[in-house]
Amino acid sequence: MDQIFQLYLHYLRVEKGLAAHSIESYQRDIRKFFRYLQSQQISDLKEVTPTTVLDYLLHLTEDGLSPRSQARGLVSLRGLFKFMVAEELLMRNPCATIEIPRHGRKLPDYLTQDEVEKLLAQPSSSSSPSPIQLRDAAMLETLYATGVRVSELCSLRLVDLDLEVGYVVVYGKGRKERIVPLGQVAQERITRYLEEARDKILKEHQSDYLFVTNRGGALTRQAFWKNIRQYARQAGIERPISPHKMRHSFATHLLEHGADLRAVQSLLGHADIATTQIYTHINRARLRDVYNRCHPRA
Asked: Which residues are known to be catalytic?
């Protein structure tokens, strides 16, 4: 078995050109399967049947492995046996008819409205905020007001903004264009940033981007992520936070206040409403929690 395994790893490395970490993942999964075969006194991969693989998946379940980990392991085994069939070392792939274990989609994490309020207040909390703080305040407010992805936020240009009407033009995945309204507070913070801070950040530089650095470029996603974590710490928010969590918060809070699911889909730029429906699961889970805590006979 080890000889075939080494041939397969060479194939992944040289012919498939997989990255080192991907190959390590395949190694771990396949070696785990080999240990199981040894425990079952199976010493030849030709003896492996679909029943063997199903028993192995059951073994993983009993060991407490999540469906996601099981699915990854099965993908690794499929690849190995597919390679063996292609090399004419096997007649058929014993994994071919076995369905990948389904794993429930994880509910997105989001901030409470109180946490959002505390976070948004941080950049401009001082009596005389710096130009950078005014920029960050405008960015955070825009992020929550629009629910845009952080990449979309950082790539906004001046021409995408219409403060008079109150909207931004956002270019999402596949350069799909959508128009997203801005709330009054977001408009006010952007206006203040443009009037009091942007030119001071740019100094002698010129830029088409809305939210800029002192070099004239757009603020990167990584830099903004670092900033948002700093403001979260200042706000006393101890759990992990990211720009995408603000997007989840935007969608969840809209639905909690009665927004139509189709409208939220359009604002988020989701091609499929099924993607947006995950937020209705959050609301149902929250309602169940409220019911369990508050109903006298729950």
From this structure: 149, 173, 244, 247, 270, 279
The sign of the dihedral angle between the CA atoms of 36, 40, 46, 48 is negative
Query: How many structural domains is the chain composed of?
Result: 2
- The set of long-range contacts for 35-44, using a CB threshold of 8 Å and a minimum separation of 24, is 37/1, 43/1, 44/1
Q: Looking at the chain, how many residues does it have?
A: 298
Domain-embedded: residue 169: yes
Range of the domain at 262: 113-293
Cα–Cα nearest to 4, from 52, 39, 46, 57: 46
Q: Report the CATH number at residue 158.
A: 1.10.443.10
Q: Are strands 161-162 and 177-181 parallel, antiparallel or unpaired?
A: unpaired
Together in a domain, 197 and 279: yes
Tell me, yes or no, whether 54 and 195 share the same domain.
no
User: Do residue 120 and residue 171 come from a single domain?
Assistant: yes
CB of 41 closer than 8 Å to CB of 88 = no
Q: Per the domain annotation, does 39 fall within a domain?
A: yes
pTM of the predicted structure, to 2 decimals = 0.61
pLDDT tens, per residue, the chain with 298 residues: 788 888 888 888 888 888 888 888 889 999 999 999 998 898 888 899 888 888 888 788 777 777 778 888 888 998 999 989 998 888 888 888 787 766 555 667 788 899 999 999 999 887 889 999 999 999 999 999 999 998 899 999 999 999 999 999 998 877 788 999 998 999 999 999 999 999 999 998 999 999 999 998 999 888 999 999 999 999 999 888 888 889 889 988 888 888 888 888 888 888 778 777 777 765 665 556 655 766 565 4
- What CATH number does the domain containing 55 carry? 1.10.150.130
Rounded CA gap, 254 and 59, in Å?
43
Q: Is residue 35 part of a domain?
A: yes
